[in-house]
User: What shape does this take?
Amino acid sequence: MNNVLFLLLLLLYVGVLALVGFITSRGASNKTFFTANKSAHWLLVSFGMIGASLSGVTFISVPGWTTSSGMTYMLMVIGYLFGYLFIAKVLLPVYHRNNVVSIYQYLGLRLGVESYKTGSLFFLLSRILGASARLYIVTTVVQLLICDVLGIPFMVTAIAIVGLIAFYSAAGGIATIVITDTLQTALMLLAAGLAFYFVGNAVVPENSSYFEFLSGHQDWHFVEVSGPKSWWRQLLGGASIAIAMTGMDQDMMQKNLTVKRLKDAQKNMVLLGLSLIVVNLLFLSLGIFLSEFATVNGLDASGDALFSSIVMHPAFPAALPIVFFLGLLAAAFSSADSALTSLTTAFCVDFLPQSSQDSIQVRSRVYLGFIGVVLATMALIYSVGSENIINTLFTAAGYTYGPLVGLFSFALLFERKLAGWKVLGVCVIAPIVSHQISLWAPQLGYAIGFELLVYNGLLTLLGLLAISKRA
Assistant: This one.
């Protein structure tokens, strides 16, 4: 399709988001930016969080994952649900009871200032890596569809996309994002649904139903008994990743903290877990259709390139690439805008004095600073490259979120004191030891999968116990 059309769609889409941003940011204070004045409706937050949880990584990578892993990722998604139930029953009551703006304030109340700063620091590292990876994968598609033909370098494309995101979200913060996430989730699901229908229609025989075709396909297998993707590792990894990357992550929890009542925030988490099971089943099933279409038509497409390559095929209606492109933008923007907001919130609340926290000018400078950091990280990812970003992202999360799991677990389980910066040393050493174990374990016939996060968190917890004192 014409790259000029995609460019016009991009500008039109950002124009709509900018209008929402203008409306929601009128008279906005830092309190509005950080908490939306705790006035958001829980159902709106829950629906919007589907898009934020999926992001461009799910939109692009999950369909391409079926060729190598089948449907085994679904067990991980079911593990997410158990993790979300833990968040609803254990973590959310703690955050609401202590009336925190940054969830790492809880670590400060329980364990002291050093634990507070360490927890927030590891969040900043984790979210910078995650947001950069998500933005990178979508930028590559925009580069392919629009910028390559125009001779625009990749980093110029990246700067333009991040600049457009800042254009609508920098002023209103979380108050804007609660609304825009709803629109973006709807677009993402519309794109996936239409692709599922059209690609499925192209590969499913007339005498067979979609379900019959999928259930009889060689990639329609959910359970592996052994190996890194065995069923118990997927469930355990999914639950731990949900707890860490949602319940101990300022980005995701900041949305929940915009809801005034605890009961409503808890309903949000349960509904989110159930919704993600349905939505990820849709994306994985779409992946089977896409891989089958590629095989039948002799196309060389796999991994992260599978969805974006096939959806542009002339066999499909012109409307499909348009909706796909809008869905892709929605996936990228829904994760990037909230990431920049949460990074700014955590840094302002956790590291700046109260006088600076109340300054809109200071907050704006911090926001711009994180834009620069994210762009630099994207440049690093671009120089390295990766065939499948989702696998890389979860592996990195196992290292960076492990210390957060250890810190929060210690705060919840033990009435002991942590004093001094030894806590930072423990949180740095635990991921290093975890990495060494992951290299050493295969020699004993055990390859560590996504449960790496659990081992990392456990090592951090044991280290914290070793340096702690009785209260």
User: Anything to note?
Assistant: The first strand starts at residue 416 and ends at 417. Residues 58 and 390 are 7 Å apart (CA to CA). The first helix runs from residue 3 to 25.
